[in-house]
Amino acid sequence: MNILVTGASRGIGKAICKELSEGNSVFATARNEQLLSDYKHYCVCDLAEERGIEILSEYIENNKIDVLVNNAGEYFYSPIEQVRTDKLEHIIKLNLTVPLRLISIAVPYMKNNHFGRIINIGSISGVMGEACASSYSATKAGLIGATKALGLELAEYGITVNTINPGWVDTEMGNSSANNDSFTKDEIVDCIPQKRFVEPSEIASLVKYLISDKAKGITGQSINLCAGLSVGY
Questions:
Q1: Helices 134-154 & 85-92, crossing angle to 10 degrees?
Q2: What confidence score (pLDDT) does residue 61 get?
Q3: To 5 degrees, how large is the angle CA 161–CA 165–CA 171?
Q4: Global pTM?
Q5: Could you confirm whether 136 is annotated as catalytic?
Q6: Side by side, which strands form the sheet with 159-166?
């Protein structure tokens, strides 16, 4: 299979590329060419910029993508009264508009081939909400809604669409967010039922399953992988 993973230079995206590399052609994309240079196939682009979206759209069309993993995104923590309009527009574009645009580019080939797998990396914040992260939560909730609608729309074409909602993940971004929060990392861990951050490899393994033939009946779903965080504490 030809698999495209956005935000592939580090963290969750890098783990997904590693997990799916055996037996597949993995196409990685991110902004930093140096961090992508270890991949056999990669596309350097900034998805926050219109030109970057155009570059990646052409790349998708040329490489006949069977599997699209929308992982690129940005976390944003701020009280609502301090959110500037330009920052709100940026986070909506990167976290919600871009994944939908990339899906629209990838789907024609998938329809023609009567096979496709689309995985969106959401967040538990889109399921539960997060104080002082309303714009981020809104974009991730939007992904869940789009996943349900697209699961219905594309089912007859052999295309599945699912969203994985990680909780706190042991990545550079996850640890940085924890350190910048109103609580310490230890205090955050104490609120997680399993008392730990999720490993990127756990998310990658779930992606591997969801794109397999064994998971062909799973579509339009929002799956929480959060060490029990969505259940309560």
A1: 30
A2: 92
A3: 125
A4: 0.94
A5: yes
A6: 41-44, 25-30, 2-6, 67-70, 116-121, 159-166, 221-225
pLDDT confidence of residue 191: 86
Nearest one of 85, 120, 153 to 222, comparing CA atoms = 120
Distance from C-alpha of 145 to C-alpha of 168, rounded to nearest angstrom: 22
Length of the chain: 233
Active-site annotation holder among 42, 77, 136, 157: 136
Looking up tokens 């994309």, which residue turns up?
29
pLDDT of res. 129? 86
CA distance 8 to 28: 5
Tell me, what's the pLDDT at 148? Answer: 98
* pLDDT attached to residue 159: 98
Residue pair 99/143 in contact by the 8 Å Cβ criterion: yes
**Residues in the chain, pLDDT under 70:** 173-182, 233
Residue (of 183, 71, 195) closest to 130 by Cα position: 183
How much is the pLDDT for 128? 93
β-pair partners for 70? 120
| Cβ-Cβ contacts under 8 Å for 150 (sequence gap 6 or more) | 103, 118, 161, 220
In angstroms, the CA 21 to CA 25 distance is 7
Contact of 233 with 193, CB cutoff 8 Å = yes
Q: For residue 102, what pLDDT is reported?
A: 97
110 contacts 160 by C-beta, under 8 angstroms: no
**Residues 72-86: pLDDT tens digits?**
999 988 999 999 999
Judge contact between 15 and 204, C-beta under 8 A. Answer: yes
